[in-house]
Amino acid sequence: MAEKIVKENKMGTMPVTRLLLTMSLPMIASMLVQAFYNVVDTMFVSYIPYEGEGASPAVAALSIAFIVQNLQIAVGVGTGVGVNALISRNLGMKDQKTANAIAANGMFLAACSYIFFLLLGIFAVKPFMQLMNQSDAAVVEAGTTYLSICLIFSFGSCAQLMIEKLMQSTGRTMLSMYTQGLGAIINIVLDPIFILEPGTPLFDGAFVMPFGLGMGVAGAAIATVIGQIASAIFGIIINHKLNHDVHLTFRGFKPDWRLIKEIYVIGIPSIIMGSIGSVMTGGLNLIFNGFGALTTAAQNVMGIYFKLQSFVFMPVFGLNNGLIPIVGYNYGAQKRKRIVRVAIVSCAIAVGFMTLGLVLMQLIPAQMLGIFNVSEGAPEMRIGVQALRTISLSFIFAGVSITIGGVFSAFGKSLFSMFVSIARQLVVLLPVAFLLAQTADGLMAIWWAFPIAELMSIVMSVVFLLILWHKTIKKLPDDGVVVRVEDM
Question: pTM of the predicted model, to two decimals?
Answer without folding.
Answer: 0.83
